[in-house]
Amino acid sequence: MSQLEHLAAWEKIQAKTFSKWINAQLKGAATVNDITTDLQDGQSLARLLTSLSGETIAKMNTKPSMRIQKVENVGKCLRFIADHDVKLVGIGAEEIVDGNPKMTLGLIWTLILRFVIVGLSEDGLSAKQGLLLWCQKKTEPYKNVKIDNFTTSWQDGLGLCALIHRHRPDLINYDELTKNNALANLNLAFDVAEQHLNVPKILDAVDITDTAKPDERSIMTYIAQLYNVFSSMDQVEVAGRKVANFLNFMSQIQSMSNDYEKRVRPLHAEIDQLSKQFCSATDLETYAQVKSAVVDFREYRRTKRRQMVQEKDDLATLYTTIQTKLRFQKLPPYEAPEGLLPKDTEDHLTKLGGVETARRRQLNANMSAIKTKLEKSFAEEANSFYGKIQQIKHAALEDFGADLNAALDKLNALTKDVKEHASQLSKVEAAEKLCEEANIESNEYTDHTVDDLSFEITSVEKLIAKNIAAVSGQIAASSGSGISAEQMKEYQETFNHFDVDKDHTLNRLEFKSCLSALGLINIDFEGSDAKFEHIFQDVSGGAVVIQFDNFVEYMNRLAGSSMDPSQIETSFSTLCGGRPFVTKNDCTSGGLKSEEIEFITLNLPPLPGVDGGYDYKTYLKNSFKQ
């Protein structure tokens, strides 16, 4: 005779829930209708253990008719459970055979803790807190949802609907739900989870709504099933973000290098065309013609040539930025096509400068030699000034090496030098005025004017300012965490939550609770997890506790900012389920954007023999080659 009818209401709900859970695990191999009688002979219990562990219990009596045979069967099951490091306190084979409801419920709850919520501390509080924190973090953005426990917080059904909507917004229209339709909300969540997420409906909505305090173990059992489904989805999203960061970076580098090459080629062509034009020019016959040619030449120097010089400097800055970004991420340097290096551009302009000098001398030869002393005086001042500016410019264009702080100090010193030298321009202006008063139209001893030198000063100031901004940005990128204020606040709150003893550090149990809550490892607090121990040693640096700075650095790494090749390959592998190739569907499931997926299809080599598969391993090998 069943003993369920003598149980309290909550125990009956728990028995019904556990029975449905058992049937979901057995998948038709057997059916448990009454948990106190259907497990008595040990056969259904053995099938349940086989389904949970994947192992078979040997030498079971398949037709137990006598009590001693049933006790023997149940005893084998209990020994099997004990062999899997599960402590059974006060539960014996006789109690199960006799249909003791409390012992039977306790046995099933122990199995749920071991195989669904996966490992607990002695009192189970750490696992419970971890699961509760996961629920709170996932439902935090939702209105009318406040999760404080595993009983009354779930009665209106909005909490379950919010959990499903957070991970699969296409399944539930959350904005249409209200607290007044608790029964409908719960049934909606149960039906959607069963139909679309393969989560068995082990609870009845009325068992939650029609009681003052729903059964905690029943609700924890159901939510643990949702956690196991959604935590795997979260891991794919993390991998997707890391892959997306890598692809975005490579796309940015590709775009910058393409921009560099598209701009440097026409600049070289324009410089060469001007050189040809100046070389083919002939002497002019009249003073007016020469004077006009001089005016045109000065206008060219003031406009077109400065534009080319500015473009040359901009391209040199772009080239340096590309190399700095790659060096910072420890990637191979960008190799520009032959003849397109910044030095090549400098050589083109130097050659043009020679041609311009020849053209200027050609014009000057047509002019009367007037006031040679003034010409030389002006040339001396202007050339000296220009030489100093060029020294400063060349110093600003030098490679400052890996010491960014030293580079910033040098650039600041160069800024001071430019300002001090600019104050000497008044001497050049005085000499030029004397030449103008003497109607000197050009000067064969110098290429420079005060206007040219002012431009050079401005050009150098801009160049140094751009380099200071670039170096300062790299210092910030290399020394800062790159974490927003909102992220840092979230990390601090998470750290404080798991710092149970409030000693401002995380011990092994506290850190394991944190990782479990975040879905990074299974909830296992028994101390036998080698994967967790490896993570703990890595984050703590060999110490016995983890400091907050170590915790932030580890969380920042999980966010996907690192360009470590092994991490990126692991993320690709996670994204595509361990296969050696990635598909568009994998990318879509991982949350990659359309442009990121397009980058994969255009740049990753197809894997031979796999339709729509892209060989990410070969692409990573080529991208990170030294």
List the helices and strands and how they pair.
Elements: H1 9-26, H2 43-53, H3 67-83, H4 93-97, H5 101-115, H6 125-139, H7 158-167, H8 182-196, H9 206-209, H10 216-279, H11 287-302, H12 304-328, H13 342-365, H14 372-397, H15 404-422, H16 425-437, H17 450-479, H18 485-498, H19 508-517, H20 530-540, H21 548-558, H22 565-575, H23 584-589, H24 594-603, H25 616-623
Q: Would you kindly provide a written description of the structure presented here, covering whatever features stand out?
A:
The protein contains 25 helices and no strands. By secondary structure, it is mostly helical. The longest helix is centred in the middle third of the chain and has 64 residues. The radius of gyration is 38 Å and the shape is elongated.
Notable features of this structure?
626 residues
In short:
The protein is mostly helical. 65% of the residues lie in helices and 0% in strands.
